[in-house]
Design a protein that fits this description.
This protein has helices at residues 12-23, 37-41, 65-73, 87-95, 109-120, 128-148, 151-161, 166-173, 177-190, 196-207; strands spanning 3-8, 28-34, 51-54, 57-58, 61-62, 79-83, 101-104, 125-126. With 211 residues, it is an alpha/beta fold. It folds into 2 domains: 3-126, Rossmann fold, CATH 3.40.50; 133-210, Winged helix-like DNA-binding domain superfamily/Winged helix DNA-binding domain (Arc Repressor Mutant, subunit A, Orthogonal Bundle). A 6-stranded parallel sheet has the order 2-1-3-6-7-8, sandwiched between helices. The chain has a two-stranded antiparallel sheet with strand order 4-5. A hairpin with a 2-residue loop joins β4 and β5. The two termini are 28 Å apart.
Length: 211
Amino acid sequence: MKKNICIIDDHEIVRKGICNILNSTDHFKVVYEFSSNSSLLNQPLNHNIDIIIQDLDLENGCDLSQLELLKHKFPETPVLVYTMHQESMYGLACLKYNISGYLTKDKPASELIKAIKLICTGKRYFTEELTTLLSQQYLNQEKAITSKLSQREYEVFQLIGEGNTLVEIAKKLFINTKTVSTYRRRILTKLDLTSTNQIIHYYLSQKIATA
């Protein structure tokens, strides 16, 4: 069964070009095309959408908050950002909106098809350029964390980030839960966090480069 695609781009010639490329394959069918996010958000939909292809420069210029609105309305629908802006400009910033991929328009059509196929399998698509940026960000953040935490605090940080309870951590590190709680409080203070959920979110944000 073909995957239903929605395209959001304010240039009609770009939308039509993407439509022709995707509709000519055996895998995809463009069911909607819009010139703005607001058009999609306010439009009654008769078809399910399997993936949204989203440009960044629309009616209000390059406004990343449009991604937040899109993901709020379609939280389970993957979004592929397809833009003229290089990864170094907006790639990392877009990731905080839980996008599924980032592709620049200077890439060949075959790369667009490859990206959509991968995303439709439930995975994420990142170009080599964005992966390099993610890796560098990860290394910088990892270095910053390890410089703030002791070795034992870092071990507890990792275990909390992986979803372990205080009791589970105590068993794995052969220490008591009171000591784990002490390490947890130190981690919160040193990383300027306020809750276990924030520790988990912080930890997962560091792992995105290897996702």
